[in-house]
Structures
1.
Amino acid sequence: MNAPADEFDLAHGAWIDCRYRDGTTRRTGLYETISDASSIADLTLPHPIAYGALYRVAAAIAYRVTGLDHLRTGETAADWYRRRNSQFHTGFDQRAVYRYFHKHAAHLHLYHRRQPFLQDPRLAEECPRTSGIGKLVIGRAVGNARPWFSDIASQGHQVPVPSPEAALQTLMWTYYGSGGALSTRSHDAVSAHAGCMAAVLRGTVGYHPIGPDLHTTLLAHLTPPNIDADQTDLAPWENPTHADPTRPPPSPTGPVSLLTARIRHAILLVPSPDGRFATDCYLTWAARNPPHKPGRDAGGHVEPFPDPFLSYQRSRESGAPSSAVRADGGRQLFRDLEVLLNDPATEPQRAPRAPTRPQILAACDQIPDEVVDTLRLRVVGAEQDREKSNDHQWWTTTTPPLLTHTAARDPEGAQRISDAVHEADLAEWHLDNALAAAFDDRPADARARKARIALRFWPRADSSFWNLYDTGRLDDATRRMRAAALDAFDQLTADLTRNPSAGERVARARARLPLPPRKATP
């Protein structure tokens, strides 16, 4: 099963940092990560968006080794859930893990001659020049970027990337890479360097259930498949052929291709002679644009293959999933808990255009109580321009266990969380009106007020919410959120009060803010 050293074996080579349940941290390959999943507490990756990519690859392999990648004859979704739930306390079958990696060993090499992992070997002949290894590293300044005052970023001065890092960067480009103009590629009669589609997760925020060990985490990452055993559903490393890049990308046929095969970029790494580094790369388009470009029209477009870890805006016509909700690094997680813990479609009193609940969280409602009580929620955000190459920020955060407080499992707890979020929204609305009066703002100044509120109110509201959640005092949210609004108002208007005329206006505006109750709600 071992590959030549110069090909960098992703199954057994050390490139994934794992924290084991005994407190030790070790760098492993894909095979050990899956086979040791019950002993691994979590991944400890150096880049936030690497979690979003690697969880999907690992979940695809988990589908295979558990046999949960298809419905058995006559099996319903409820039957599938029972089959999935029976595996939470057993660990992955080591024989199934061995068979899987033995079967696909030839295609799990980073620098394989004929089928390198998540890459297209045809680029060596179809691209007239390389892109430079700096282009592969997301976040690194390259080319004519203004931070460079010399030719250090030119083709002749590229800093090689160690193979473990190159593997992660390849994953991140596959899932989060930018669209637009990349290297020229000529395939058959088509030759182009522009028009590459953005990667499927670019600019999105994903939600991942995290258990006490990686085995639990990966099982919780699975949703019921919609295919039978005799249908074809392949990951790129399972498929011996490469798609025609002159056509729109092929549609997913099942859960494995949905998680791994929606590839928009063609990548090919150039290794050092010993395989220890990636010294250069080709980076270009892998498919032509489909007739409809998701993200440009959130009205009538319906996403035919929603990613299970994303939340979606709703189509104006049908209310079905449309474009994925954009990541916003300035938005606190607790503000979205009402959608994440409840299905807005079942609540007529909610706004009809509320975002959809991620499918994976709905699937968690079917997990046994003793397991779901341990599940935390990891958020992986990538604030990026989908139509441009600008990357603003990436982040990841992990909540305490809260997936037990859904409308399906704990209606009262879910309602308390929703009420606390509403209290924060109401306090922000009153604060916005009071600030408009204090600064004598015109309607056009609303954006500046929102920026002030984002700076002074929402961070305190966020810390107040989680403190109330941790201490079981969410009923006290009204007092805490109103206090946060008053404090933010006083900070933001402090300079105005030095002017006598403005100070009087500030006092009148402050009187518009509701006062916190003297006591916490019983």
2.
Amino acid sequence: MVEPGDEIIAISRDNLELQLEPFDAVLEPDDSSHFGPYNRFFERQGVIWSIISQGNFSFAVQRNYDERLINYEPEWITVSVPRNTRPSDLPVSFWYQTMCGLAILWMGIAAWAFARHERGPFFYTMAGLGIAIAIIASAIYTTRSLAFPADLFLSLSRANQFGAMLFAGAGTTLLWYYPTRISAFRFERLMYALVALILAANWGQWLDSLDLLARVTLLAWAVTDIVLAVIQWRRTRFEPVERARLKWFVYAWFSGVIGYLGLVIAPQLVSKPSLIHQQYAWGLFVLTYLGIALGIVRYRLFDLDRWILMAWFWFACGILILLLDGILLVWLNLQHALSLVISVIIVGWIYFPLRQVLLSKLLPSSRREDLWEQLSRMISHAFDAHHSVEQQWKSAMQRSFNPLHTRRKSLFCKDPCLLDDGLRLRVPLIGEGSSLELSYANHGHRLFDREDVQFTRQAMTLFSYVQQYRESFRQGVRTERERVARDLHDDVGARLLSIIYRTEDSELAILARECLHELRDVIQGLQKQTVTLDQSFSRWHSEARERCELFGVELDMSLSPQASNMIFTPRTDRNLTSIVREFLSNTLRHAKASRITIRLDKFTEYLVLDTSDDGIGWPPDMTYSHLGIGLYSIRERCEELRGQMALYSPINGGAGVRCLIPEQGEAQP
């Protein structure tokens, strides 16, 4: 019987005997750094197979007893193996590797079927085919008992090399086309030529270094991947969907590639054993292909875009622990359990605290926190009575997300929703039966995601409360206006009429009639909700013509068609009326003019009130600090309407006053 720990040191059949070497039991012949040991391995595999495949053979066993007591001679044991049989049970590692290869191949084909119109997914599938060939070939010869037929073993080894090189080349070509095509050059032609050249050099053993023709070439493909990824990163900086696909692809691809190269290939290049054997490292590529498939089929890119940093973080932490464990285990010759404990202590007590300090000092604040911090400012702006809630809502969406494009849609939208994989966000317009579509968040640097939807929904709720408050406030103002207007009409108006009919003083009667006329204007203003400019213009023109005729001054007063439909609140109308009256009074009293010109026009969302005369003009030392009572009153009313006043001198002489009044200038109830 052979006990665990016993060492098989030789095998024999008939007159043929072979002393076994540790390298005979290596799972992967490519672990050799040169072709000499590689070729010798297959020669010895042929001899071993010829011994064990012909029925009866013997093997020498060195018992693992305590050598301090006695030195035992090897014990020869003869076994009989039936010909043309195969094992009834295959090891678990065989099925594990086979399932990894088939899973990768299936995901590659499925992703390509989803996006057959794109060249990128085709090379993704080709890379999957290559890695599937490499894995399944490896699954066959790494789970052998002791030996394989040399020709079959060599063919499987070359199939493994072919698959690995096809995977590397197709993966690099994928980055040339995905997510955007870098140039019109057909990179796959160069890839096919390089793969054929490398395999020819490997199989023909043009150089003695297996490291150079197998491992260094894989590293070269990986470096090319990094260069192409940087180029793609720059090209997609204003394409958030493509950037999200690229970020997820880069994470998935380099997680598998760098993980495999770092754990399997890199240690071999420095003549150290792999930190994890190749047959178990294939699982990294399964995760890689799953991640890339999610990006290619655009599965919730708005979430993948957010998960990417967290996924990279945990991947890096896991790699760090494995590297520390491998360094302590291999270079310091520590026991495995002890090295793992030390690496966990280093990561937990040194790396994590240091990482938190660096993140808090170097990284900018999260845009998520900034977004939610804007909520209070948004609500405070919503209470600004100078703009409607609807206008404030549009402005709030613009400030919060900084979209490249904002479009109003007639489509009714009850709740915010994501469109085109997060490229656009549709939000309802408060108080209207339409919606607003925001495209390319943060000027095209990111996608909208579900947290944006949650934020918008919360902001909508608060804005609806503001709208209800303002509507209640407006209703209260209307009610109070109606009461004041009714009281003025019934009480003050009646008393003024009594004065008019009872007084015998003609001057007092005239003054009372003027007061009653002003009172009626005030009452009408209180009763109206809005006033159109053409209605006010008719009233202003009639009054100005009467006053100019009284002083013998010519009047030229006009209203442009663009401005005639402008709508103002009663308070704005009263202020504009006072401005026109004040200018007429100043001109008729002081300017010694023969002609007065008044123009009302519209510029964007502003009313332009331009008044001028042909009189004596402004004094030479006229400044804004020397304004008279009339001009100062005009300036005050303009500022109350959130407008501006400017004085100027016309070319033909005289004086001019220009007022710029926003249509939504005066505070609305």
3.
Amino acid sequence: MWMPSQMPALAAQLKAAGYTGQPGSLANLAGPPLNAVVKVGGSTGAFVSADGLVLTNHHVAYGVIQYNSRPERNLLREGFVAHARADELPANPDYRVLVTTGFDRVSERVLAAAKGKTGRAYFDAVDAASKALVAECEREPGMRCSIANMYYGSDFYLIRQLELRDIRLVYAPPEAIGRYGDDIDNFMWPRHSGDFTVLRAYVGKDGKPAAYWADNVPYRAPAHLQIARDGVKAGDFVMLAGYPGTTYRHRMASEFAEQIGWRLPAQVDALGRLIAIIEDEGGKDPAAAVTYASQLAGLKNSRKRFQGELEGLVRSDGIAARKQQEDAMLAWLDRAALPAATRADIDAAQALLAQASATRERDLLIGQVSTQTQLLRLAMVVQRLAIERGKPDQARESGYQQRDEALIEGQLKQLQRRYSPVVEQRLLADIVQRYQQLPAAQHVPEFDAAFGRTPEELQQILTRVYGSTRFGDEAVRLASLKAEAPSLAASDDAMLQLAAKLLPATLRLEDERKRRDGELLRLRPAYMAAQIAWYRSQGRSIYPDANSTLRLSYGKVAGFSPRDGVDYAPVTTVAGIVQKHTGKAPFDAPAPLLAAIARGEFGHTADPVLKTQTVDFLSNLDTTGGNSGSPVLNARGQLVGLNFDSNWEAVSASWKFDPRYKRAVHVDMRYLRWLMEKVYPAPELLQEMNLSP
């Protein structure tokens, strides 16, 4: 997962791998092809027309499709095609497309005020310097800026991104195509999913980012990718650009041990319980099924990823392998002429991590209270925002500054289509009951007072709060967004009262975390410096762990052998759709798709060797969460695939990369073209993307 700035140094390797472009151009974020690659809803996408068409995954835009769905007009089930721009549907108000325009190293400015400080003071110094840089950057209207931490506190970069706020749904296949196989096929191969959706970004008539308005005009993309008319075959060069979320490959051996020994099993269990609740309620109420479709899909994806990660790390003996690697590095460090303080900082960081493990169960559950609820989460956000508003903007907590208020307002507006009081009460009851069972040392007084100490007390409290609150009304929520802190604190609304009771604990636990994070931010660079020096001593390069910044990976189209006697071909075809079809979800292929396959009219989108229509393909590109929707380019820089998944054998790649098994799964652009030509026609879009038959 190379930073673009590292690509010129890899020119020889790129050329040897088959790339025909200029490697130096890949360091230029403001030029093609990288200025066509955008961040979409927390993942990735790419412009595919000059008029702001954005191609991303169906599952990345799933919330947009769900937001526009109703039981009587279920776009998830039916799919959607806008034949004219007036037919395009607005995304949920907090959905964003970010176009990266700058990436500048600012390490000296970020770390200058932190010198000599420790703990919370170190954290605050880095935080204040980062916010000052962001505020300075965002003086330019329409910009969303951020600071990226590379190599765990060793290096910092200022990222400038144009924030496009009016995003509209243009084309989505039915989920029986976009999610064919759903949770059963998730992370599996062979795959037969058309996991893609087309959106369009709009701006005001002045060309500047603006909120949704009917009179807005399509954004004129600085560059866009051309979808290739030819396809791929085994051994072809491919390259992927995207925004991978988080990897942990440079973490300490003790962190590997905790991840495998406790965190992954705990997360699988916790998410499984929440999934069961939503599925149970959705089975009883079709409206709840639609309302929670996006959250359920996210939970299922996360649970299966954690399951695969655990299985892969155990299979590769991840604990022992990482310990052996770390021991070798530390032994080399003791022999090398590096400062003695380096080893002392490493030992101090390891001790701090051990201390943090004492409250890991509590922290997991309290985190779920604020991430897996909708109404309570937003009540807590509103209470916190009112307090933060009393501070100078740069002193506010990240996420509660003036720059964040439009996003918060969007979340308050869309709640109605994401929330059911019955479902939320059950989810919250399950989380808090597990918290109630923790040892007394992990209890938090405010949580005990707010929710009671027994399941019976908890149920009485939840029934009263959800039965009497007015916060479920959009007008009440939006009014609370503007309320002053004393007014909210004195509110007689049961939900706002509950949030107010929890807020002191939230702030206190946050302070504890920041003290620890500040120390780790100060101490971890020693560990990274040792790793970098150790790699260089062996003639090896090293990239920073992924952190949602733009990265590049290059390789080839390749199958693999997951186990003895099994070989996977790198390309699948529509024959597999028919073979898997059962007539029941998740293998209920739509009738128009089956009819088109039966007719066999594949024409120019058919593979010239296989003589049939391709669907998905594999590559050995390096990906993780956040790379969903990443464009896959051929040697000429043309779009041949759209990344959407990894294989089961390599889900653990976020912690440990194994080139023998790591594969990325992509939608073949020939399948997209065929669907848009023959199955769910969109001739206007094909023409706009220069793909007219």
